[in-house]
Amino acid sequence: MQHVDLSHTDPDLPEHLVLILHGSRGDLSKRMVLASLYLLHRRGLLPRTWQIIGTGQVDDGDDAFRAEVRDAFEEHTDQPLDAFDEFAQHLSYAYQVEKDSPWSRADDVAAAVADGALVVHYLAIPPTAFAPATEALAAQGLLDGARVVYEKPFGTSPETFAELDDLVHEHLDESQVFRIDHFLAKEGTQNLHVLRFANELFKSVWNREHVLEVQVDVPETLDVAQRASFYDATGAALDMLVTHLFQVASEVALETPDTLEVDELVAAREEVFRHFRELDPEDDVVLGQFDGYTAIDGVADDSQTDTYVAARLWIDTDRWRGVPFVLRTGKRLARGAQRVTLIIRSPESGPLGGVGIDSVSVSIAGDGRIEISTTVKRPGPELVLAQGTAVLDFDDVAVGEALPPYASAVHDVLVGDRRAFTTSATLHEAWRAFAPLLGERRPTPVPYAPGSMGPAEADRLVSDAGWCVTAPDDAAGTGENS
Ligand SMILES: NC(=O)C1=CN([C@@H]2O[C@H](COP(=O)(O)OP(=O)(O)OC[C@H]3O[C@@H](n4cnc5c(N)ncnc54)[C@H](OP(=O)(O)O)[C@@H]3O)[C@@H](O)[C@H]2O)C=CC1
Ligand SMILES: O=C1O[C@H](COP(=O)(O)O)[C@@H](O)[C@H](O)[C@H]1O
Known about the structure:
The chain has helices spanning about 25-40, 60-75, 85-90, 105-115, 130-140, 160-170, 185-200, 200-205, 230, 235-255, 260-275, 280-285, 405-415, 425-435, and strands spanning about 15-20, 50-55, 90-95, 120-125, 145-150, 175-180, 210-220, 285-290, 310-315, 325-330, 340-345, 360-365, 370-375, 385-395, 420, 445-450. By secondary structure, it is α/β, with parallel strands linked by helices. The chain folds into two domains: about 10-180, Rossmann fold; about 185-405 and about 425-460, Dihydrodipicolinate Reductase, domain 2. The longest helix is centred in the middle third of the chain and has 18 residues, at about 235-255. The relative contact order is 0.14. The chain binds NADPH dihydro-nicotinamide-adenine-dinucleotide phosphate (NDP) and the ligand O=C1O[C@H](COP(=O)(O)O)[C@@H](O)[C@H](O)[C@H]1O. The ligand O=C1O[C@H](COP(=O)(O)O)[C@@H](O)[C@H](O)[C@H]1O binds next to α10.
């Protein structure tokens, strides 16, 4: 079998690394960022020498930090902790960087830089702290040559996005900025390119002549009770639509770049975002709220926050004009899934028509999977047509071991691969297309029953094929998330 190496790993890995994890004692840092670094350590994917300096608002010293990280790993990761003690030797802790007073570890970092170390600042802090933290790092001279990772959301409205974007560009070149959208780092999402660009079978149908509709569907069974106050101030559309679902839609819709090198891939993604039509809140968007949501502690009694959104997005390129991209997500639904489905048109002429819905469906959950539903001859003496589905789990393909999305994103930062990150231009266009949903035209959320697939009102957004992800027959719920 021919092996085409698409990885951009070791040759670009720096020899020495100092990763400064701001907000290192927070939920995301411990559950995702540090766990990812631990995984990369165990897989031998970190630089030859490396250190992680955690920062925060309370300084209990290195040992307390290491113990806290160990406790978090015991609770949240299923990785063996046999390498933890070795990992912990690379961890230290310091009070956070402030604008007006020198930082206690500045000299250590300067010495590492003089030895050629790459400095990465990972901002795992509240979005409101991104701007002051960036200014503090600039004031302390900690940004020269560094890479800076911004968690999501990078702005919560067109205005706050633009303000933050301007401030970040005052201090950093775009090439230094890594804005996380972990959906771009999923194995399944990245396989969308490969399926399409490496296979004429898919490439030739990837357009409006052959595709009737695209569904990007991320229903979730999850509740929001554990993070009610964050969620109530955010809602499904801001949490998932303008971020992950738009990015995944752009992956499906982009024009074929000459190569998958970062500049060309990112330019293709930015170009397709420019063709996102502004959402039409009346015709193309349904918001929902699950019954019982306002009774959750931390949620306002009269909350109008959306826990569900379905939106029909139009992408006005020659390739996709007239093909609806229907994007859906919601909490407490009957089923969890993360699916991109291209519904293929039936033949308009010829001796046979289809008997069902022909589709190419890629699960972007976990290690990813492709399902191809197509019309076949039913076995037997007569020519009777039937619908069949072929399933291929990507992790069954060949020797290889997927990285979870956060580990993949962290690794990409270390090797300087910006392909799976959002850019200033894509976010600018995302906010432009999303903006009509923020004003007076925002639809009122429609109630739906927990354990259902959301409000029936949204059924009008899809074609006669209906939703490709439906409630499980046994109503027990299936989990395909992450
Ligand atoms: N948790 C998750 O699953 C996800 C989180 N994110 C994003 O990750 C980031 C962190 O979220 P999460 O870990 O959940 O939040 P937490 O509240 O758990 O942690 C935030 C951390 O930031 C520090 N912090 C709080 N306020 C400030 C401030 N004003 N300046 C500097 N540091 C501050 C705190 O430090 P200290 O402990 O010292 O007080 C704390 O450790 C956010 O941007 C969030 O949107 C994105 C996707 C998922
Ligand atoms: O960023 C987010 O993503 C998760 C879903 O992603 P997963 O890969 O962790 O399943 C979503 O549940 C959450 O609300 C959102 O903030």
